[in-house]
Amino acid sequence: MASMSRRVAGFGTTVFSEINALARAHGAVNLGQGAPDFDGPPEVLAAAVTAVNRQLNQYAPGIGMATARAAIARHAERFYGQRLDPESEVLITSGATEGIFAAILGLADAGDEVIVFEPVYDSYVPNMVMAGVTPRYVALRGDDWTFDPDELANAFNPRTRAIIVNTPHNPTGKVYSRAELTMIGELCQKHDVVAITDEVYEHILYDGVAHTRLATLPGMAERTLTISSLGKTFSVTGWKVGWAVGPEPLITAVNRAHQFITFAVAAPLQAAVATALDQPPAFYSDLQTMYQSKRDRMLGVLQKAGFETIKPQGSYFIMADWRGVAPSRIKDDLQFAEWLTTKIGVACIPPSIFYQDSDKHLGRYLARFAACKKDETLAAAAARLSKLSDD
Ligand code: PMP
Ligand code: GLN
């Protein structure tokens, strides 16, 4: 009996699960998976607890709870001036992860192409494989992770149905500039292609860099599906409450898939969405101040240990070249991540997993560190990493 479908047989286990297991087994300080080791705002947590105790424990509407959809629309207008009808232009999904999968299933047919930038967040391509869609890669290069405009233009062809843009970007920390997004938007319009944006790090930005929502650029409102979630902004990655917003025809298409994947998202957690997104301006600015200080601290720790760091503009990740710190027998990022986790006691993610097979060498000398950890966790990591520069 074949125990696995051909569809999933090539996937293996995600690197996040593997590194978590390795970190646990070796008692490593885990700077691998991008999840905070601290809780979100107490009032947001309390809103979910209250909902459980007030019997909000049955199925929510498939499209999402009305109070949550209204809050998502308010947030889009407040931060981006984006006007959305909460009745028809907001869909609540099980995290951004389900939103992206449902978007691919709902918007592209088997045999179509979807453009992604590489390095690419790990779920997009498996999502496409499951949908029979072909990924088309455009490289982000250099320390500022820019793309070649001609390479992007050439990636569009008659089979292209969509492009996925993740900004701020995981794993690089790149924040796409307005000029880059304008170029992407113009190509989408020229080729009649839908843009799917993954903006889960929309509020984690450094050095005063601004986040631009592609949906708000000229001509893009009618062809952009914007996806985000509570996980990162409110430090509740375990809740898996996300959303897709955009024009009614796109939301209807995505909901066709969503209704048969999860049907609806955890009701009591949706009940906390308004408390979260309606937080006052100080919450959002304090979040940036907190993460800026964690990023700066980790950049210093990594540099002192001998890494060459690439400064991120957003997200909670730092990419660093490890060649200055590893013993000469370490040949690639997979070996390095394993060595750092098991021998030094600090877990990181090997970035080659964010590349297709033919490009894995581009991640070979890098490691991705997550800075979304308590100060004491960062201090423990710093103490262990300082061993690297001792000898
Ligand atoms: N997109 C990106 C770029 C991510 O880094 C992550 C993981 N944190 C997700 C999507 C998943 O988001 P969620 O937890 O809301 O499913
Ligand atoms: N997005 C998180 C990261 O990149 C991981 C989420 C997951 O484990 N799938 O670290």
List keywords for this structure.
alpha/beta; 3-stranded antiparallel sheet; 40% helix; binds 4'-deoxy-4'-aminopyridoxal-5'-phosphate; binds glutamine
Relative strand content: 5-15%
Distance between the termini: 55 Å
Order of helices and strands: HHEHHEHEHEHEHEEHEHHHHEEHEEH
Count of helix runs: 15
Mean pLDDT over the residues: 97
Low-confidence segments, given as residue ranges, are none
Helix vs. strand class: alpha/beta
Annotate the secondary structure layout.
Layout: H1 6-9, H2 15-26, E1 29-30, H3 42-53, H4 66-80, E2 90-94, H5 95-107, E3 113-118, H6 124-131, E4 134-139, H7 149-155, E5 160-166, H8 178-190, E6 194-198, E7 224-229, H9 230-233, E8 241-245, H10 248-258, H11 267-270, H12 273-277, H13 281-305, E9 308-310, E10 317-321, H14 333-344, E11 346-347, E12 366-370, H15 375-385
Parallel strand pairs: 1-11, 3-4, 3-5, 5-6, 6-7
Antiparallel strand pairs: 2-8, 7-8, 9-10, 10-12
Helix pairs in contact: 2-14, 5-6, 5-10, 13-15
The structure holds 4'-deoxy-4'-aminopyridoxal-5'-phosphate (PMP) and glutamine (GLN).
Give an account of the 3D structure.
This protein is α/β, with parallel strands linked by helices and 391 residues long. Helix 2 (15-26) runs parallel beside helix 14, helix 5 packs parallel to helix 6 and helix 13 (281-305) runs parallel beside helix 15 (375-385). The model has no long low-confidence stretch (mean pLDDT 97). It is built from 15 helices and 12 strands. It starts with 5 loop residues before the first helix and ends in a 6-residue tail after the last helix. A 7-stranded mixed β-sheet has the order 2-8-7-6-5-3-4, sandwiched between helices. A 3-stranded antiparallel β-sheet has the order 9-10-12. 40% of the residues lie in helices and 15% in strands. Helix 6 links the parallel strand 3 (113-118) and strand 4. Glutamine (GLN) binds at residues 14, 16, 33-34, 170.
